Amino acid sequence: MARDPPGPAELEEALCSKGRLRIIxxxxxxxxxxxxxxxxxxxxxxxxxxxxxxxxKLVRIGWVREASGSGRLTRxxxxxxxxxxxxxxxxxxxxxxxxRR
Length: 101
Prior knowledge:
The protein is mainly alpha-helical. The protein contains 5 helices and 3 strands, in the order ααβααββα.
């Protein structure tokens, strides 16, 4: 089932945070497949409570989802089927944000 495109408030919520941008970047460039909260915390440097809040916001707007078959430990992936996210990723690639660490 296709989701409605995010409105301005959802886009602002997704992109107006250094933490959420770091989460998006790590999930986009991960060579390790889906990432757990712990792995995202280590790779982004975001405190656990802030990471949890940022991750929940990205899940709520539909840009991040729980990976299926991830076992006991919940792992997360980008929902690359989301058109707004796909366009955002293309922009972030175009400006080199996904190339930097």
